[in-house]
Each structure stands twice: as C-alpha cells, then as structure tokens.
Design goal:
heterotrimer; A alpha/beta (about 575); B alpha/beta (about 290); C alpha/beta (about 400); A: about 575 residues; 7-stranded mixed β-sheet; 23 strands; about 30% helix; B: about 290 residues; alpha/beta; 8-stranded mixed β-sheet; 9 strands
C-alpha cells in the first residue's frame, strides 16, 4: 500500500454519493403503452336540446360568474334564451346525468335567469357577424322559426326581409302562449335583438302564392315558416257554434277581450286547449275542459295540466263531444262516454265508446282547441320529388330561388325550440346552397351535429371549437361522482294557483344571481373540461402542465391513467400509444 | 376553476422511477407542497430509496439523507441535534419511511425517538407490504391479504398493526392519518405537523400500490378513496396521545373496496363478512375514543 | 494539568476538550463511565452539546451518522455486544466518509456473558473501513482521542479509539490533561468538507449502481492510504503543542533483537518490564507496541522487524478457523518481503484472563526454543482441567 503524504492544506479525494442532477434526464414517457388525451365530449343535455345549446359549458360559465361568456354561448345556438327558459319543454333535463345522482339541473331556470339578466344589464350583442354579402332572403312568418332563420342568416351576412301577416311579430310566442307564461315585454326584447342585426320586418303583410312566384327575382332564397295558423275543426253537428280557441287567444292578446263570464266549455287536450282554459279562468270564467281520452294521454305538458287543475279548471276525461246545439242563450254539448281500448304501440291509448252512455252539459260558450294545421298553400311538397331535399327540420325545394319550408310545417316535434332548430338548419342550408352547392348540405350538416343529432351547432358550422368536439355522449357511468355532494335543486318562488289565476302576471319567479350560480354549479359539466385541475394535481409524474391550457408532457407521462379516472366529467380519454 | 386550494410549487422532479400510478409518489408530491423547501428528508431502505434516483441523479429538490433500514427514527434525531447545534432551528427534519421501516424493522428506533419526543416529523407512507423487495408481508399488511410470503391458503390471518394507537401511547404531541385521495386534508395535517415544532409528529399516509395490490394503475387514487369511504382507513388525528378528532370514517361496504383489488380476490363471502365486522367494530371503538375526551 | 484519572474519564475529558457537538450512546459495561461523565458535562454546562440517550447501539451509531451528515462533530462509545450490533452501520459510517470518533472498550463477546478484556470485538470489525488505534495507558487514551478528531476530519474516515476493559477503562493513573486553549489550537472547529445543508438540495447516499460503486470504494481505499501520512502530520502538531508522540507503532529494543514480541493494549506495559528483564539476562529480546491497526502499518512493521530472527505475536483475541488476528495480519505484511522472519502466534488473556509477566516470559522462551512456528496459534494459560467436560 502506498502512503500518501497528507498535507494539511491538500486533502484526500472524497468521492461521495452526493447527487444533485435532476431525474429529468429520464424520459419515462417511453414506458407508456396508453396515453391520456384531453377530449371534450358531448353532454347528453346538449344532444337532447333541439337547438343543440352547449349546455354543459353554459352551466360551467354561469357557475363561475362568467355571465357574458355564458350568454354568448347560448346566443351562438339560440336567439331566444329568455323565451325558451320559460316555454321550452326542456328535454335537456330529462337527459341530465345528474338525475341519477340526486336531481336534474334546473337548466331552463338557469337559462331564463341568464336571458333576463342579459336584458336587464343591457348586454351588448357579443357575437361576430359576417360582413353583409348583399344577398337577400325572404322569410314568411315572424314566428320562432322565421325569426330564428332571420337571426342566423343575418349573422351569416344575409339581408333578411321578414313578412308577418298579423300586426306584431312573434307568431305563437305572442298569440299562442299566454302572458302568464311568457310576458310580452320579454318577447319584445328578444325580438328587438334580432331586428337590430339588420333584419327588416314587414307586419300586416301576409304572403301568398303570387308573392312566392315573383320573390325569386328579388331574393336568393325563401324561408316559409307560417306555422299552423288554422284550427282543426271538429266534425260534429253544431261545430260552427263553437269558437276557435286559437283565435280566442289572439283576440285576448290583442286586447279585444278583457272579460268572460259564465261556464265555458273547452274541447281539446293539447297546450292550446290548456292555454285557452287558463286564459278563460283569468278573465273570470268557470271552465270545463273536455277531453276524449284520459288525463295522462293529454298531449299538453303535464305541468301545464297540473297548473290548470290547480287553478280551478274542471277536467272531464273520456268524454267525446258528439254534437253541439244552442239552447237559448246557452249551448248544450252532448258527450259520448269513452273507455280505454287497446294500448297502441306508440303508448297512446286507444279509446272506444263506452256503450250508449251519453250526457249533455250546458255551457255559456264552447271553444274548440283540438289542434292546428297549416293553410293549404303552405304544405311542403313530398320528399319523393326529385328537387326536394328533406332534412330533419326543413324541406328544401330547389329551384332558381330555393324555397325552404320549416317550423311546425316540417318539424318532427312541434315546439318552440324545434322551431328555432328549424330556422338554424334552414339558414345553414341556404348558406350552403348559395356559397357551395345543395349536394354539400347533408355532409356539412352531419359534421355539425351535436352528438348523434338531429340538433345542429352553429358554432361547429362556423368552424368553432365544437366542430372538433367528440360526438361521443357522456353516460352517467362515465363520470367519477366521488367529487360531487348531494345538493338539492334550487327552486325559485312561484305564484300559488290561487294567486296565479287572478291575473296574467308571470307565475314563475326566478333565481337570484347567487342561486343561479349555485344551481349551475350542480352541473357535472359532462364531457367538458372546467379546469378542476384533478388531472394535474394527482399526476404522479408531474406531467400535466398548465399555461393557457392543460397539456400532457409526453416525455414523462407513463400512461398510468389516474388523470382520466379522476376526471369527474369524462373530459379525457385513454388512447392506445401509437408506435 | 380549480377545485383545490393548494400551494403551488412542486419540490419533486419528473423522470423518477416510481411505478405508473404509484401512490407513494403522489404522497410525496403533496407532502412537499405542504412542507415547502426548508426541510431535510431522511429516507431509509424503501421504495423511495430507489425512486429518489440513482447517483448522480435525484428526484427531489430538497436535501436527502439516505439511511439504513432500521435507523430512520435515530438518524432523524441525530440530524435534528446537529442542525440545532449548527444554529439552524428553522429547517424541519422529515423522516419518510415505508411501512416495513416503521412498523417492523424501524419500529424500535421510532419508538425510541417518540419516547424522547425528538423534534421531527415522521411520515410513514403505507403501502401495506414490503413492496420494494417484491410484495412480502409486513405487520402493516391487513387481514385477508395475499402477498408473496402469505400466499395461497396462508393469506395473512393477523390483523394490521395499529401504528396510530402505538404512537399515541407514546403521548407524542401529534399523530394523524392521511390519504392521497384527500389532498386538502393531507396538506392541512402536514402543515399542522410542521407548525408543531419541538416534539415528535407522526403522519400515517395511505399510499396505494397498484403493482403490489394488483389494482389497475388508474384506480390508484380511487382505491385510496374507497379505503376511507369504507372505514378501513379512517382519517383522524390524535393530540398528546389522548385527544382524538375523527375527520372521516365512512360506512360504505368494505366489499366495494376489496372487490377492485387482486390481492383480495381469493376472499370468500364469509371472509368479507368477517372483515366488515372487524371494520365496524374498529370504527365504533374509534368513535368512542373520540367522544371520551371531548 | 496532571490529574489522577480513570481510563474512561481520560476519554471523556478528551471529548469535552474536543468540543464535540452531538453524542449518542447506549449503556454497556464497561463503557458506562465514559457516557455518564459526558451526560454530566452536558447537564452542568461544561459541554455545549446534545446527548441523545438512544434505545440501542445500532440507533446510537445511526444518530451520530445523522448528526455527522449535517456537519456536527460527533462521538459515541460502546463495547462488545454493542459494537457487534452496530456492525452494519460501521460500514455505513465509513462508506459515507463521516468523521465520527468512537471509543471502543475491548470486551469479550457472549455467550457466556463476560464483561472483561478481550480484543476480538474490535478486531472482528477490521473490514468496516474504520481507522483503529489501540491504547496502552491513560495518557495514550486521552491523547489518542484528541488526535482522533483531527485525523478523522482530515481523512473523512471514522476513527475507533480502543482501550482494554477494566485494565484500562477502570484503573486510575496520573494523566496530563491539557488546557482548552491548547486543544483549540490543535483542533480548530473548521467547517466540515461536506455535509447536508439546507441551501443546497442534494441527496447523500443515493443508489450507486455498478457503474459508480467500485469507484466509491476505491476512493475509500485511497483515503485509508493517506492515513499514515496524515497521522504523522497530526502527531507532529500534537508533539509541538503537547510534547508527546506515539507513532503507528513503537519499537522497544528492536534494533538488534533476535526475538521480537508484538502486542497491543495494556499488555504492552507489562511486556516492557519483561523485555527489560530479559535484556538484563542477556537475551536479545525486543518489543513492538502495535498502536495503529487500521490501516495496517505494513512499512513500519517491515522496518521494525528488520533483522529479527523470530517474531512472537501475542493476541488477546481469536478468529476461529485461523487463529490470532494480529498474527495473521503480520504474516500477510511479511509474506512478500525478502527477509521473512517466522511468526509465532500465541493466544492468551481472553475474557479478562490476566496476562502476567511470567506468561510473557514463557512465550519468549517457547519461541526461542521452537525451531519453527506451528500453523495453529498456541493457547497460553489454558486450564486443562476445565477443557475436559
């Protein structure tokens, strides 16, 4: 062994295991055989919404207090938030995943609050519109379908002329739905917003065949959304003695009737019949609602039926009128007692006369509201015709100036939101015909579907973020509900039936801002990243980075999948690693 | 918007060699966020002795002293004494040991340090077996588990040692259990421990091990949550050895917890019932203890 | 200042003067007087230090390893079973290049329980990388302990100061105890070469894969190689201040000796008298006191034996299967030299059995009268009656 002289100043070598180089040199990403990706998917509520509103995202933004951004998202797909929040039958809430956890989100209530808030706070219209292209579109009917078509077309750069036969725009929104459900002031505000985009409205200007014939000279396309303005008659003796329910509602709305006394019979079971009945109550009448099947078979919204009964309407089920005759000042309506027959496949109950049992009731007036239909001239042509393209909510008739039929004339479900969907689809179709060709319509619309459709997204049409969103629907089992606590849905106050029936004041109250945020906060935001940060927090490799967006650092990600599992809302996915 | 109110800087590097989904690395990540950088870690033989990196690399942005398996409690005591003598009274000494190095071979040194009430935080990250050496049983392995030394019909028939009760019996100022599935609770406890300078603080952290438990790696956090939700791993704090605070001990059926883990898949219905009974009894006892001093 | 001190207290005085900062120990006879004194110093303020009363020797070594890693000057003491229990960590201390000083009181290993003098315990740790220095008397103990701190900190290797159980630890002698100022000049409190500090986040003792481990071990060997040179330097400074120097070994009458006796510990004192007597009888006897055992002072051993015809090594220890340990090491040191005097190996004085002048003389005469050494060590002083049972 050699001796090394030890100088007090020089020291022996010291190779210690003293480690300070970071392990970042080990690119552990090479371990991976699956890789996580951020993948926004489609929430079932937005797929169920006929207008395809980006509901999961809207709720997220409201919960965060970002009301303008939420409203912008809503307006992207629907020009009538304050309206729909009041009158839509909210299929979104039926589809809501939270109903498996505690209660559905009160989506329509949040929507209504948001729409009202924007109006109250005078939010400026937030969406960019294309520059006007000088092309003109004619729109027949200023109901929800026509106004929506105008709205979307104006945003796409078209000049729109809307022709309305009555003295004010709105169609069924004004003349069909009573003020206690949809106050006129709200409707007027939302319609003004559309008109302010440069849409020209021509009231008291009905459209007829002659117009259609020469409209092609002045307009690139024509949208026909005249709706079901004609009541269906009941073909029984004495039918001419009954008043038209739709017409009645129009006259009330037009301030032509302000009181009705006596006992009034209303025949029908749909929303119109209910609206007629509840309007009569408010005008002072005693109402008897006559329906030939059972209460549960009534096509009217069940909530509406409940309210009607609570307000004091007497419901006579399984009663089919067989004739009406006048009896002095009054009318005698003879009713055939019905009984349930076989259950039809569609679930609607077949009814059959119950022997010879009849009875006659005596009323001061009779109103008929068994359904509505379009005027003959508005019947869309059969889709078997060569130049006809049938879409989900429109029928496109090609020609020099294509004519697009929409709204109740063509919709699978006759609702306000479907009308809006129709206007949107028509606008897209028109834009495609003019800028590309009619052959492009089915493919392009397909790429704009929300989930499996039929709802379409204007954001996707305009190549926004939703174009690239996965159309995979998020099921309840895809969620990780460990991050949610049971919370009751908030319900705002409402007038009691006793109070409600006294006037046409709006029945349903609304949220405070805090309540709206809290209710929206219950939303799972299915399929939409809301920045909860679980992925980044739990990543054992510190491989999730956050700058503007979150990204996976593939140099280190081992593909453990914890991020995907802990994402409460299925906004991530694991893909096989590409070799 | 982030669900979490958590401190941000991380004191750990990517590129460490923890298994995918390793609960112990998640535990370290949270612990370091809570404690900050003015600490020195003392790490005995355990998974983290390897995960920390091979010379000249380190996965940690704080000083680390590696030490022999049995010695964590003693080495930490010595380190603290030296820092004090050197005039550094702010750096916190943090022992970071696995269940083997705490419940078994390291138990004596821990007990000695706790009896002396030496001033450091002792963290046991518990993956319920000797994972670093290949999944052999420890006294922390729960009743019912198959490991490589309790295989087949010889699955472990002894209950898990209750380390919290043992440390409480030493009357140390603070002992608490924590789970990686409850990050904010865990952070709160680490910060509380950090602030209670002057004595021995013990933290028992549930750190899931997908590899050793035969659990898909993505369920690492979920299984840690199920453990608390079912009451198998209750979250509680003991101050001065006698004052109990129960944070969370759920009543979800233990079968939900057992069902996702391969290490338990041999259990029969009767075994599961027995486990449920034991968990219920332990939970009741814990609740009674909580009431006793309050 | 000259004081009458018990051997244990020669250790504790030196530790006090060395301004040790952190100590940790577990009681074992006959080390107890050392640590009791140190506890008192901490209690009465004569030492500004922390004393950790741990629950085993293994933890005592672990605690000083922890403390030394943070740069504190550290000390522990143990004996026999305790040293054996520390074994794992003795390797750790040297592997970690920590300048720990430990007093090790040579005591027999059980079973049967025997608390008395035996060198096997410390010699059984000869592979652990510690510097080992054996002491003859109280002054030697105090001086060596002081030197140990300086040597350890220069070489970054731990030092074991070894003293005989009871014969040295519990006997009283006059010892010159230096003043604090002189010791401070000898042992400056410099910053350690490497230690954990809060402002530099590195890890000590990380996994060392095959690609680096061998180099780390070689480095320790290099450190050991530097020890004799460093020790000489340390002793020169010590001599300058305190007037005493020992060397890794001491030769007595070896310049023309035919037979040289070799041993370590208190038996050396006895043997000085025996060699003097033999010389008066005309015998050419010599004595080598072995002080430094690790690193083994090969050069000095070869030089000390010079032209001697025979070497008689007295081991108060045994490595079963090969015999006396000092004898083995000496044989190994000589095997490649041209002049290779035969080495006679004797084992005696185990478990506190006294080594008398008569026994040492007997060893001399046996060596002189045997033409060649046997391969096996010769056990001296066995009670043949007891052996038969």
């Amino acid at each position: 062994m050699t001796f090394v002289d030890c100088d007090a100043n020089a020291t022996t070598s010291l190779f210690l295991s003293r480690s300070s180089i970071s392990t970042e040199g080990n690119k552990t990403g090479s371990w991976r055989f699956v890789r996580p990706v951020y993948q926004n998917k489609t929430a079932p509520c937005s797929a169920a919404c006929p207008a395809g509103a980006d509901i999961g995202r809207i709720e997220m933004l409201v919960a965060q207090g970002q009301f303008r951004a939420a409203w912008e998202s809503l307006l992207m797909e629907n020009p009538f938030p304050a309206v729909c929040g009041r009158v839509c039958f909210h299929p979104c809430e039926e589809a809501c995943n939270r109903s498996n956890f505690d209660e559905s989100i009160g989506i329509h209530r949040v929507e209504r609050w948001l729409g009202d808030h924007a109006i109250r706070e005078k939010f400026l219209f937030p969406l960019k519109t294309r520059n006007t292209n000088g092309k003109r579109i004619a729109i027949a009917g200023a109901g929800p379908a026509g106004l929506s078509a105008a709205y979307f077309l104006a945003r796409l750069g078209y000049d729109c002329d809307v022709f309305e036969s009555s003295g004010e725009p709105g169609g069924i929104l004004r003349w069909g739905i009573p003020a206690y459900r949809l106050p006129a002031s709200v409707l007027n505000q939302e319609i003004s917003r559309i008109l302010e985009l440069g849409v020209t409205l021509h009231c008291d200007t009905p459209v007829d065949d002659a117009f259609l014939a020469e409209a092609g000279d002045r307009y690139q396309a024509i949208f026909v959304g005249c709706g079901h303005s004609r009541s269906m008659p009941l073909n029984i003796p004495g039918t001419e003695l009954a008043g038209d329910g739709l017409n009645f509602l129009y006259r009330v709305r037009n301030h032509e009737i302000d009181s009705v006394r006596g006992r009034i019979g209303v025949i029908g079971g749909g929303n119109t019949a209910i609206d007629v009945a509840r309007t009569l109550i408010r005008l002072g009448a005693e109402v008897l609602l006559i329906y030939r099947r059972r209460r549960q078979d009534m096509p009217a919204f069940s909530h509406e039926v409940e309210m009607a009964v609570a307000e004091g309407i007497e419901l006579l089920e399984l009663a089919a009128p067989i004739h009406i005759e006048s009896s002095g000042e009054r009318f005698g309506v003879t009713l055939q007692r019905m009984k349930p027959g076989e259950q039809q496949l569609s679930g609607r109950c077949q009814v059959v006369p119950d022997g010879q049992k009849t009875k006659t009731i005596h009323v001061d007036q009779v109103f008929m509201a068994i359904g509505a239909e379009a005027e003959d001239i508005w019947a869309p042509p059969a889709s078997s015709q060569e130049n006809v393209l049938r879409l989900s909510h429109c029928t496109v008739v090609q020609g020099r100036s294509p004519i697009i039929f929409g709204g109740d004339l063509t919709n699978p479900v006759q609702s306000v939101t479907d009308a809006i969907a129709s206007g949107k689809e028509a606008a897209m179709a028109i834009d495609l015909i003019i800028t590309e060709s009619v052959e492009d319509i089915p493919g392009t619309l397909e790429s704009c579907r929300v989930g499996k459709g039929p709802a379409l997204s204007m954001d996707a049409f305009l190549m926004g973020e939703r174009r690239n969103r996965s159309s995979r629907l998020v099921n309840y089992t895809d969620l990780n509900t460990d991050y949610f606590q049971n919370l009751e849905a908030a319900s705002p106050p409402a007038l009691s039936p006793a109070q409600a029936r006294k006037s046409f004041d709006e029945i349903d109250g609304t949220f405070s801002a805090r309540q709206a945020m809290d209710e929206a906060g219950r939303c799972f935001n299915c399929g939409i990243c809301n920045g909860c940060d679980n992925c980044r927090l739990f990543c054992p490799e510190l491989a999730v980075t956050l700058e503007d967006d979150r990204t996976i650092n593939l140099d280190y990600c081992k593909g453990c999948g914890v991020c995907v599992q802990e994402c409460p809302r299925s906004a991530m996915a694991l893909e096989e690693e590409r070799s | 918007m982030s669900l979490w109110n958590m401190p941000e800087p991380d004191y750990m590097y990517s590129g460490h060699t923890g298994c995918p989904g390793c609960g112990a690395t998640i535990a370290m990540k949270f612990a370091l966020r809570a404690l900050g950088e003015d600490i020195m870690l003392v790490i005995p033989a355990c998974c983290w002795a390897v995960v920390a990196g091979a010379h000249p690399q380190t996965a940690l942005k704080v000083p680390v002293l590696h030490t022999a398996f049995e010695t964590t409690g003693a080495a930490a005591s010595g380190l603290r004494a030296a820092l004090d003598m050197k005039g550094d009274t702010t750096t916190t000494v943090v022992a970071w040991a696995g269940d083997g190095g705490t419940f078994d071979i390291g138990f004596q040194a821990l007990s000695g340090a706790a009896e002396r009430n030496d001033d450091f935080i002792y963290v046991c990250y518990d993956n319920e077996a000797y994972m670093n050496t290949g999944v052999q049983r420890s006294s922390s392995t729960p009743f019912g588990t198959r490991t490589t030394t309790t295989p087949g019909i010889d699955w472990k028939k002894q209950r898990k040692k209750n380390i919290m009760e043992i440390l409480a019996a030493h009357r140390i100022p603070y002992a608490a259990s924590a789970s990686i599935a409850y990050p904010e609770d865990m952070m709160r406890k680490f910060r509380k421990a950090r602030s209670m300078k002057g004595g021995t603080r013990f933290l028992h952290v549930y750190a899931s091990c997908p590899t050793g438990w035969r659990v898909p790696s993505e369920l690492s956090v979920k299984v840690a949550r199920l453990a608390v939700q079912s009451g198998i791993f209750p979250l509680y704090e003991i101050e001065n050895g006698i004052s109990y605070t129960l944070n969370e001990a759920g009543t979800r059926p233990v079968r939900d917890y057992l069902a996702v883990q391969g290490r338990f898949k041999h259990l029969t219905e009767a075994d599961i019932v027995q486990i449920q009974q034991a968990v219920d009894e332990d939970r009741d006892l814990l609740i009674r203890r909580t009431r006793l001093m309050n | 200042m000259r004081q009458v001190l018990e051997g244990s207290h020669a250790v504790s005085e030196a530790v006090r003067l060395a301004r040790v900062e952190v100590m940790s120990a577990y009681p074992i006879t006959p080390q107890t007087h050392i640590v009791e004194a140190l506890s008192e110093f901490c209690a009465d303020g004569s030492m500004n230090a922390r004393f950790l009363c741990v629950e085993s020797e293994h933890s005592a070594m672990a605690a000083v390893i922890g403390a030394s890693s943070a740069g504190a000057r550290t000390f522990t003491a143990t004996s026999s079973q305790g040293l054996a229990l520390m074994h794992e960590l003795l390797h750790w201390a040297s592997g970690a290049r920590l300048p720990i000083v430990m007093a090790e009181v040579n005591r027999a290993l059980a079973p049967g329980w025997n608390i008395w003098m035996d060198q096997t315990d410390s010699l059984a740790q000869r592979d652990t990388g510690w510097i080992q220095l054996y002491c003859e008397d109280g002054q030697d103990v105090l001086d060596t302990t002081l030197q140990a701190f300086r040597l350890a900190e220069l070489t970054n290797l731990p030092v074991m100061v070894v003293l005989d159980a009871f014969f040295l630890s519990h006997t009283y002698e006059p010892v010159d105890v230096p003043d604090q100022a002189s010791v401070d000049r000898f042992l400056p409190a410099g910053p350690p070469r490497a230690c954990l500090n809060a402002s530099e986040p590195f890890a000590i003792g990380q996994m060392a894969p095959p690609g680096v481990y061998m180099e780390m071990r070689h480095d320790i060997q290099q450190g050991m190689s530097a020890v004799p040179g460093c020790f000489d330097r340390v002793e020169n400074d010590f001599e300058t201040i305190f007037g005493r120097k020992y060397g890794p070994l001491e030769t007595v009458e070896c310049h023309d000796a035919d037979i040289i006796l070799v041993m370590a510990g208190t038996a050396v004192s006895t043997c000085r008298q025996v060699v003097s007597d033999l010389r008066h009888q005309g015998e050419k006897a010599g004595l080598v006191k072995l002080k430094m055992f690790r690193p083994f002072p090969i050069e000095q051993i070869r030089q000390a034996f010079g032209r001697a015809k025979k070497i008689a090594v007295v081991d108060r220890n045994v490595s079963f299967g090969i015999g006396g340990i000092f004898a083995q090491e000496i044989r190994a040191a000589l095997c490649n030299t041209a002049e290779k005097p035969p080495v006679y190996s004797y084992i005696t004085g185990l478990g506190g059995r006294d080594v008398t002048p008569e026994m040492l003389a007997e060893i001399y005469w046996t060596t002189k009268n045997s033409p060649s050494p046997s391969d096996e060590s010769i056990w001296v002083g066995l009670n043949k009656e007891l052996g038969r049972s």
